[in-house]
Amino acid sequence: MQTNNKQTETLILQEGEGRVYNCGTMTAIFKADESETNEKYSISEWWLEPNSEGPGAHDHEENDEVFYVLEGTVSFLVGDKWVDAAKGAFLRIPAKTIHDFKNTTKSRAGVLNFFIPGGFERNMPAIEKWFKDNK
């Protein structure tokens, strides 16, 4: 049963569907955000072109992140160590942990990301603008 409340609607998105943000050599596709999950989480895909940097080392004060590699191999910085994660790999990065990701291969790579609790998507318009302004 569907209602008019976005937080209780069923979401069905096909490959490539969602809110797309172009961030240089990265493309983010948000599948569900805090307004659709009662602020519990947001889910996005992050696609990296071959030999491309990620967002840069950072942490989140109150948010855990979960990554699942969808395609290719992605290098993750977790704390002070880089780890290569191939298709099917799973990572949980607790709040307050420095992390980053990048693609050091010659093939496109992608990860599914769960941001818990949600809200990261609020930053995406500004992040996309930064990448456009700093090509």
SSE blueprint and pairings:
Layout: E1 19-23, E2 26-32, E3 42-48, E4 64-71, E5 73-78, E6 81-86, E7 90-93, E8 99-102, E9 109-116, H1 124-133
Antiparallel strand pairs: 1-2, 2-3, 3-9, 4-7, 4-9, 5-6, 5-8
Number of strands: 9
Number of helices: 1
What is the C-alpha radius of gyration, as a whole number of Å?
15 Å
Order of helices and strands: EEEEEEEEEH
Please give the oligomerization state of what you see.
single chain
Work out the strand percent: 35-45%
How far apart lie the N and C ends? 46 Å
Which structural class fits the helix and strand makeup? mainly beta
Question: Per the principal axes of the C-alpha atoms, what is the gross shape?
Answer: globular
Helix content: under 10%
Describe the strand arrangement of the main beta sheet, using strand numbers: 1-2-3-9-4-7
Give the averaged pLDDT, no decimals. 92
Which regions contain 5 or more consecutive residues with pLDDT less than 50? none
Q: Summarize the biggest pleated sheet.
A: 6 strands, antiparallel
Molecular structure report:
With 135 residues, the chain is mostly beta strands. The protein is built from one helix and nine strands, in the order βββββββββα. The chain has one helix at 124-133, and strands at residues 19-23, 26-32, 42-48, 64-71, 73-78, 81-86, 90-93, 99-102, 109-116. The strands form two sheets. A six-stranded antiparallel β-sheet has the order 1-2-3-9-4-7, covered by helices on one side. It starts with 18 loop residues before the first strand and ends with a helix. The mean pLDDT is 92.
